[in-house]
Design brief:
- This protein is mainly alpha-helical.
- It contains two helices and no strands.
- α1 (about 5-15) packs parallel to α2 (about 35-40).
- The N and C termini lie far apart (about 35 Å).
């Protein structure tokens, strides 16, 4: 069962745009970020999700 979150509104707005820039979600642990991304991914044929905790080598791709 999926519980709607406030972030879903913002992600749906992002998804409805004609051009998409990458999305980076940061925040406290265990608040539903990964679940919200998986739920959003169901709208698309393809999507990429990178977990920087599981793959810290990809952190070089982001600027602080």
């Amino acid at each position: 069962m999926y519980y709607n979150r406030l972030i879903d509104t913002y992600l749906a707005e992002w998804a409805s745009r004609s051009s998409h820039k990458p999305v980076l979600l940061r925040g406290a642990r265990q608040v539903g970020k990964s679940t919200a991304v998986r739920h959003l991914g169901e709208r698309f044929e393809n999507y990429v999700k990178i977990n920087f905790e599981k793959h810290p080598e990809y952190k070089v791709l982001c600027r602080n």
